[in-house]
Every structure is written in C-alpha cells, then in structure tokens.
Amino acid sequence: MVSRRHGRYEVLVIGGGVTGLTAAHHAARSGLSTALIEGEPLFGGQIATVEQLDGYPAVGALSGVDLAVDLVERCRSLGVAFHQAAIESLTVGGGSLVGLAAGERHRARAVVVASGARLKRLGVPGEDTLLGKGVSQCAWCDGHLYRGEDVAVIGGGDAAAQEALVLAGFCRRVYVVARSPLRAKPDYVNRLTRLDNVEFVWSSEVDEVLGSGAVEGVRLRGVR
Ligand SMILES: Cc1cc2nc3c(=O)[nH]c(=O)nc-3n(C[C@H](O)[C@H](O)[C@H](O)COP(=O)(O)OP(=O)(O)OC[C@H]3O[C@@H](n4cnc5c(N)ncnc54)[C@H](O)[C@@H]3O)c2cc1C
C-alpha cells in the first residue's frame, strides 16, 4: 500500500546529505518548522562513504558516517521532521511551494534543494552486471570483502586516491588505473607512492569489467 503523507512546513529541505542536513539544522535552529526529505533509505549521502574526512575542520579524526549520524541527531533534537521519499517535482500552489513524491505532498514557504551529485559510472560492459559482485563505489563499505586480494581503483582524482589509500591497508595489491598523472592532492599522491602494495597503471582506461558471477579482472586500453 502506498503511504500518503502530507506535511506543511516553513522550510522543506530536499536531500539528506551533509549539505541538506546542515541546511535543515540551521533552519530548525532559527526556529523554523523544517522537514528533510531523502530519497534513499539512509541519510548522509556521499559523505557516509568516507572513512576519514579530510579538510573538514573537526577536533581529531572524523569519519563521514560519524558526521552524518551527528548531524541527524542534532536535527532530530531540534524537531526536524525526516521523511524518506524521492521528490519528483516542485510546484507552486496555494501561496506555497509544493514538493511532490509518490503518494506524498509537502508544502513549505521555502525549499532548499540539496540533491548533491551522483557518483560517476564508467559505462563499460560488465560494470552493471557485476555491481555488488566485485564492482563497488565505496571502499570503506565494501573493501573489507576483498581483504588480502588484488583490487583496482579506477581514476586519478581525490576520491580515487582516498579509496586506494583505504584499500591499501588490507588488500594484497592495489592497482590505480589512471588516464593521466594523478590530479589528487599532493598529500594523497605522496602517501600512495610510498606504499609497496600500490601500483600505478598509467595512460589507461577500462574497456570492460571481466567475470561471470564475480569480477575476475578488467580489460584496459591505452590512451594517449
Ligand atoms: C570517495 C569520496 C571521498 C570523499 N572525501 C571527502 C573528504 O575527505 N572531505 C570532504 O570534504 N569531502 C569529501 N568528499 C566529497 C563529499 O562527500 C561531498 O562533497 C559531499 O558529501 C556532498 O554532500 P551533498 O549533501 O551536497 O550531496 P550528496 O552527498 O550527494 O547528498 C545529496 C542527497 O540528496 C538525495 N537526493 C537527490 N535527489 C533527491 C530527490 N529528488 N528527493 C530526495 N532526495 C534526493 C540523494 O539521495 C543524496 O543522499 C568525498 C567524496 C567521495 C565520493
């Protein structure tokens, strides 16, 4: 049965990542009745996949999950209403903004859209069929499944470097496949290059993820 929930708030925040949680927190702290709507079952968004946050001014080391949980708790204590639903459209009606999701209608005087970004996919054969069977977009969540094994990280930016650093802690060998020299922060690059079990595969991109039932490897092609 489709649950029909309707709400009326001063502020409606769409997206339960760190941006949406922070916006909801500030709105509620200002005394505004606030609802936060997240399309996924878990709040936190991308930050919840980060083992140790870098560049976030916190006292001591902080994981993304800890930050998300803390923000959720702060919002709850301020009375923010949490809903799980994917907002499909925004309209104006009856003097307010209306966010519509399947079977739900939420009205507000102001809407904050904090819908974030989607993690980029490679778009190569084998990627979709082997998702969850060796293909992952979160080293911190899934990496332990590949403890002691050889893994490949595709990409040369900050996120790829962070994922490679996590995996190097417990995988046998980490291949970092990059089209060009790493664009990641110098600190990440320095740490990676000092690790014996990290090997760089330069000027390459993935043509296909290989395997039937589980990932067995990747086929690469050279790029200029
Ligand atoms: C591997 C990795 C490592 C990173 N490391 C760091 C780091 O060390 N330090 C740092 O500062 N940053 C880091 N980042 C970047 C950081 O995670 C992101 O910048 C940040 O999480 C973005 O937050 P956001 O709330 O703007 O978006 P998102 O986290 O993308 O959240 C948006 C949310 O909106 C929801 N949503 C979207 N559309 C709808 C809809 N129609 N209805 C309802 N909900 C919707 C989504 O489900 C999602 O939960 C890292 C990112 C990655 C991938």
Spatially, the strands of the biggest sheet line up as 3-2-1-6-5-4
Whole-number count of domains: 2
In whole angstroms, how far apart are the ends? 54 Å
Q: Determine the strand fraction and express it as a percent band.
A: 25-35%
CATH architecture of the largest domain: 3-Layer(bba) Sandwich
The total strand number stands at: 11
Mean pLDDT over all positions: 93
Using only C-alpha atoms, the radius of gyration works out to 21 Å
Q: Can you write the helix and strand succession as a string?
A: EHEHEEEEHEHEHEEE
Structure description:
The protein is α/β, with parallel strands linked by helices and 224 residues long. It folds into 2 domains: 7-113, 3-Layer(bba) Sandwich (FAD/NAD(P)-binding domain), CATH 3.50.50; 139-216, 3-Layer(bba) Sandwich (FAD/NAD(P)-binding domain), CATH 3.50.50. 22% of the residues lie in helices and 30% in strands. The chain contains 5 helices and 11 strands. It has a 6-stranded mixed β-sheet. Helix 5 (186-193) links the parallel strand 8 (173-177) and strand 9 (198-201). Helix 4 (158-168) packs parallel to helix 5 (186-193). The chain is elongated, with a radius of gyration of 21 Å. The model has no long low-confidence stretch (mean pLDDT 93). Bound molecules: flavin-adenine dinucleotide. The site of flavin-adenine dinucleotide (FAD) has 29 residues, from helix 1, strand 2 and helix 4.
Question: What order do the helices and strands come in, and which of them pair?
Answer:
Elements: E1 5-14, H1 18-29, E2 34-38, H2 64-77, E3 81-84, E4 89-93, E5 96-101, E6 104-113, H3 139-142, E7 150-154, H4 158-168, E8 173-177, H5 186-193, E9 198-201, E10 204-210, E11 217-222
Parallel strand pairs: 1-2, 1-6, 2-3, 7-8, 8-9
Antiparallel strand pairs: 4-5, 5-6, 10-11
Helix pairs in contact: 1-2, 4-5
Bound molecules: flavin-adenine dinucleotide (FAD).
Flavin-adenine dinucleotide binds at residues 14-20, 37-40, 45-47, 49-50, 53-56, 86-87, 114-117, 159, 162-163.
